[in-house]
Amino acid sequence: MAVWPRTGKRRRRAAKTAEPKPEPKPEPKTRTSPRLAQLKAVLVRLEPDVGSVFMAFKMTIAPLVCICLIQSTAWTNHYKTNGYLVALIANLALPFLPRGTLIKFNVQLALATAVSYCYVLLAGWCGLQARKHTTHSPEQLKAYNSSAEAVVAIFLIFCVWTIFSLKSAYPSLFFLLSIAGIYAVSTLPGLARASTIKDVINQSSNVVESFLTGQAFGFFVGIVILPRSGRDDFRKAFKGCLDGLVVIVRAHEQCMSVFKARPPDYVPPSPTSTGDEADERAAAATKLQEALKGFTNGVIKARAAAAHAKLELSFGRLDNRELRQMMSGLIDLVPPASGLFAVADMLKGAIDGSLKADMENEARRRRGTDATLDGRDEEEDDDGREQEEEATHDWHQLEEAILQHLHNMSEAIVNGVEHAKLRFHLTADKLKLPFLHRNQEESASAPPSPRPGDENFLESFRGVVERECDVGQGKDGSGGEKLMDHYIRHRPKDEDLSRVTTEKQLDYSQTLLSSLSNELEGLLITAEDYYGKPSRLIIPHLGHLDWLKVFRLNRKTTDDSGVELGAGFRKRDPDHVPPVNAFERVGNYIRLIPAALRSEHAAYGLRGACAIMTIAIVAFLRCSQSFFFRQRLLWALFAIIMSLGRTSGNSNFLLMSRTVGTIASMFASYIIWYIVDQKTAGIYVFLELWLFFLCYLLLKFPPYSSAIFVAVFTTIIMICNDLQIRKIGASKLETQFTVYPPFVNFPYRLAIVLLGVATAYFWTVFPFPLSEHGQLRQEVGSSFNLLGNYYSCISQAVISRLEGSFGDPRDEASPGFYILAARRRIFRKYQTSNTAARSDLGLVDWEFSLGGRFPKKIYGEILSLLDRIASYMTLTGYASRTFQGLSDTSAWRFVDEDDVTRSQLLIEGVTTRMVVLHSALSQAHPLPPQLRELTRAHMPEFSSEIRSEGVAAAALIHGVNSYIVRDINRLTQLVKDLVGELDFTVTVETDGEIPLASARNSRPST
Fold it and tell me: Which residue numbers delimit the Integral membrane bound transporter domain (predicted)?
């Protein structure tokens, strides 16, 4: 920001005549402990809303009905002791999902159950054949047979290994695979004792009927009772994203207002005002960053809601094609909005430098008030200072005009957002919009202009955006000057990044707001097309052929479009050359099998198989088989399937949360059972209240879903077990398993569930733990590589636009189509990798650290720097759009000796440096010696004959390069602190015979 001088005759006289005023004492600031702040945040999230309350109530209906059916004699005669399985699966049918997704999920669930049923029948038949082949008489078929037990155990091991491997590879299939695993472990141990094929079928069919019945109850509740529309969810999420965009624009406008330069006659009211202003600026920049984060999270939520909406049968205007267009337009708003993160960071980084400068100027002003200066020196300095004040006053007036221009652009974007919401029918009538209520005098004086919702608003929006690119123009539209042109004429010469000037931020903001307006215009065009269509019946496509898009890029590279793609568009295998015949192509597919077996997902599956067999082996041994079934150790296997984590930190966190949840469920079971004096009707009432509370927590805290589900399972198992004993009779069940009274049964079942949780945790950390900090290092290293690729795409886009070969990015035969497609793909991968890294960074504190302390602060700073660099690169890409329409760009590009086009606007070595940092951090090897700091190219002084638009964009990119270079050099230093540098020099300390400097500088050549 610009810092104005506070010396001169006028100010000095004011300082001499001003009487000193007593300084007010600063009020003491209250401090809030972190724990209390976290508790307040939890209480805020627990604040009830109508939607969550109804959804939580809906989730309790199906399991509660299934538990109530235990009182039916016909029910218990058919399902016997498997009634609790019906209630468990009714809860796992996820009735709170939107209708389309609910149908898809339940179809997949039924298919997974059917496949598991077939697999279990195959395992039972093989075990029965092994029993027959190792038995010499029919009387021995019912006796214990080790061969049958071993065969069924092998089937169980392979099934569990497959399920856990798939859970690791496809986390989105967690519930489907968990239900398949629960079915396998609840059926296979008992089938090993079956002596006839009829027993195998009866046992398998009884369990599968329990699963399908529970699923039917959950599906019926989800479809009929309080059905949830996926399209309504998408509309709410889409409206939230548009509202988030308005919040971003308002926060950015507040930032620019707070950081604007002070008028020339400004005098601080007190010595402490400078620090208060710095706090205000920091708060404004932080608010903008938080708004950007909320907008990005909203877009992610909207994408998930769009996936649900595509699967739904509905009557309206929003078909699948328009859903894709709306999401595409919304995603296109993310890059320019995230680019504003760079402006927020620049503004935030200016606080320290401007605060220091303000304090120095304030000290000089106060010293000038008390000291007696020489009159002749004072007269010599006053003339130059008055000229400086005049120039400062002129710039201050122009800055106010530029801020007004940015304000008008912001208002145009806000009005465009309101118009989009009206056209998409996301808000009420336009007459109810608050910003359209004007008083009569203002309405009479202001000329009529199109309002959001009017037919001609889109043309008005385009005109406002184009007209507001000029500042200082008259009422007749003449005499204007481009904002970027003004920047060139008044370009600051100070290159110290600690003294960030306001005029730079205004140029960056103008570029990003202009890009944001252009992207919003595309969304408004989609809104106009949507508004004119009639309502109709929308049938979802049953066959999604999105997988065909995989072949589109390769197909386009072989046509006659004249576009030749570089090596970065094709993945290379360092161990194999591309196949040239059918035999080699088949061999490539066969190699996928050993590749899958040696992957980390297969290793996780092996851990899961070991965890299951740690307890399940008891069911296959002669001496312990009866103990397994009588004590219902089966429930420990359920807990293992739901509880086994991949990393140690995540497992520590889940172990604690699941332990707390199961213990709370035990105490809740005591209250549910005994507070009503063991009356069945009262038990159901309090059970409903407890399940409602758990389901409400599940909706409010999705990251804790696994722990909450274990608590729900524990409650259902404890209550259902005793209700079944009461209904069937303890005397009839004593032959199958041991019967305990409820006050003994509750802690005993808790111990069994905790045994499964503890076993899952043991096999997570044994024989060696997969730590969060190891995954964090890999994810950060991957972010380095992806960001290097991202800058390579940005550089190629800049070069193509300078050469004039970029073309229309909407045309698949143009280079711009491939460059932008690769840029979007890489940017999405970077966001995924960066999000995973931040998740791992949050779980590092849950690890048991042995040895030295983990450098969490360094990794946190690296992730922040990567986000900033990505924002700067995005800003560079949008600023280079100006070159696409210029006829002469030879001033910013040249051809080197290798006949390769290069540009002074690009930073040499960024991609190479990011790849080097990626390799060093991922492989944990030291950096190469003597890595030089990156530097940007010199910005030449251009003549006035050169087209000013290109010069302005070049100057803006050149300014952004300063921040990219600064942050990459800082990244290099941070990585060097982590992995070190390849340096084998030896320093010899002497008493002065050999100079120490020469010993240190005697580095061998590398």
Answer: 627-762
